[in-house]
């Protein structure tokens, strides 16, 4: 009865030659992920913010996106035109200069991004000494008081508002937040991806081969991870010129260790699985076994870890920036914003902005992480 | 007729997963009278364990629910009872023992604490009283030198002893009903016989009622007064044990009874070509001690075994667990290091490295015990079967590989369309067929079969045995068949070696071993397997 019905049972399934692009298990995971509404929405909000910030140059910049000058179509956002093109003498055009603006407007037109400041643009028209309050806290007269033509000045528009005020060097906070968000997330992503690659490979080799390889590597990691990372970064940062890639390299030296434990444990467990033994009995080479049979097992643990590691990386970068050992001076960074907030307690918009940006970003990532964890939880069956 | 102790009326169990609801048990009714043993028999997935677990409401609620039914015990419906009442019943009046004695004991507690805790919690006994009662219980369940064992941890006990301790814990509060969920499935046949005898004795002495869940009809015949045959969540037949066995009414019962592995092994042919030979095979695991990790002694996994496997013939390797059967098989197929010469088709292979072995892997294949573990859950059936082809015949085109996969799937009795699906969509028997197909697609000459039928239901076992015999005949395969299940070995092997503690106890033609065993150990194995009879102490492990 239960016997040769097997063949018949199989027959009942239609000949599905074309397989769906998601395997059944991944489809179930996606369903579980979606079932966590908070994480699902967080993912979309985060992706939206991140994609927007990737186009930061088109949102907040001190150059017009497109300009037409004497019949020629110009793209100042992507191309640096020398000022002599517009009758000036500087090597790089300052489009915020009223003279250049009048010149272009007289011979064509230009479209500005919604925020006319880049992260390093100094706003020389703020109504009081920097840090200046958000523009909407001033009356129109106050706001335009420093422009040459006062209230009637064509530059005293919404585009030149400082929506979140300026910092103590008269730079627009909103522009710096947008650029800072981008650099933080990119830094976190690159660091996480790179440490995942290194950590997973190291863990895989240790777990798969075991024995002496494992023993020696484990002792090395114990010593390595007992080095006080933050101090070391401070020392190295004092010697090497700090920059995006240098910081990334230094932090990568230590962050890969986080993955080793999980992946190693997963490989140690799975290398004795019967299907791994079966592959070995088929004569499958070690490297193929590790990639095809073992890595997918470890991926679940790794992917679950990923959002939290990403969070950790961002936090570390922020704290280094806050201490002043992070990205070079002048770069847009959330840590630097927090530091300004701490130094200028009379300008609460700095601290509040920094705090809100960071907490929203980190919360979104944690919520996504929770949903990912749910998605990969094999025991999660209902709800 | 006495009134029933436990009465199950129209019990249904449904599981909700996502928005899908599956009915696992469908309106099941039966009674258990005082002092009676009722057996629930069925194959895996028939709903017998779920029925038993719902008696004590141990299912994962709220994923599980009871659309209908009542479970009457002592005049109260347990399904409607509150948690307080249930707690009083659980472990006190109705207790339960499970299949897996390895994991049902807390590894961090001594026996005294393990058993004593039950007494202290339910009875409020003092330490001293609990200790005395624990000792008494351990003696009752046949743990020898119980005083010395009080301080022992679970890992210091054998599987059989652990199951005895589980039974002691279950009996601690003198329950009226014991639910035994496949209590001997994870044990050796010899130990199984001992545990069953213990349960029978306890039932006699204490007038215990038992609900016994098993898939093994041999056990049912031995222990049960009445039998309920379950399939697909329903009870299809109920009756006294003798009636069911002598006069089965339902088609499914007859099918179950007829499901023993049958057929004759290949005829012995001493002139057949030797495929694999092993001389004086030794696998010793070193025991290292001290700071310098010097080897002080060895665990002799396999200790000087000679084997010859011939084309078209089957060598059966039998023995209790831990006797070194699988280790021997792995050593012969060069999956683990060993001493002694191994020749494959006349050529010594014991000095080859893993890499040098690779070309030979094609001709030496292994089929593993657990069809759930031996197929990668992330690969489709086609990918699983093709894996070996890709390595050993890298020149094949995709179409040619696909053609071979189709061919081999048909050969093992599966629909070729199955190749687009994933292992989890198949039953145990079908999976084992896929595992066999994976080995067969390479056209091997030697196949090591490591308990390939142990994880399967009885009726599926018989089919897999038929399939293996069929393939052997067609391709003149040499089998090394490792099993603790003598019934299956009898149906497949024409030569048998009996192993104990790494050594060969007895070897010879299968007929001679089964009909005229020489050693007490072999006799005990055969008695336990075919008659579920216990051997005198000391002959087999406990």
Automatic annotation (TrEMBL), chain A:
Belongs to the binding-protein-dependent transport system permease family. The chain crosses the membrane at residues 39-60, 185-209, 229-262, 300-327, 347-369. Keywords: Cell inner membrane, Cell membrane, Membrane, Transmembrane, Transmembrane helix, Transport. Residues 181-373 form the ABC transmembrane type-1 domain. It is found in: Cell inner membrane; Cell membrane. The keyword Repeat does not apply. This is ABC transporter permease. It comes from Chelativorans petroleitrophicus. It is a multi-pass membrane protein. It comes from the Bacteria. GO terms for cellular component: plasma membrane. Its main location: membrane. It holds the Pfam family BPD_transp_1. CDD domains: TM_PBP2 (cd06261). Gene3D superfamilies: MetI-like (1.10.3720.10). GO terms for biological process: microcin transport; transmembrane transport. InterPro entries: MetI-like, MetI-like_sf, OppC_N.
From TrEMBL, chain B:
Keywords: ATP-binding, Nucleotide-binding, Transport. Belongs to the ABC transporter superfamily. GO terms for molecular function: ATP binding; ATP hydrolysis activity. NCBIfam families: PRK10419.1 (NF007739), PRK11308.1 (NF008453). Coiled coil: none annotated. This is ABC transporter ATP-binding protein. It comes from the Bacteria. Its main location: membrane. It holds the Pfam family ABC_tran. Residues 8-257, 287-526 form the ABC transporter domain. The keyword Nucleotide-binding applies. CDD domains: ABC_NikE_OppD_transporters. GO terms for cellular component: plasma membrane. SUPFAM superfamilies: P-loop containing nucleoside triphosphate hydrolases (SSF52540). GO terms for biological process: peptide transport; transmembrane transport. It is found in: Cell inner membrane. It is a peripheral membrane protein. Transmembrane segments: none annotated.
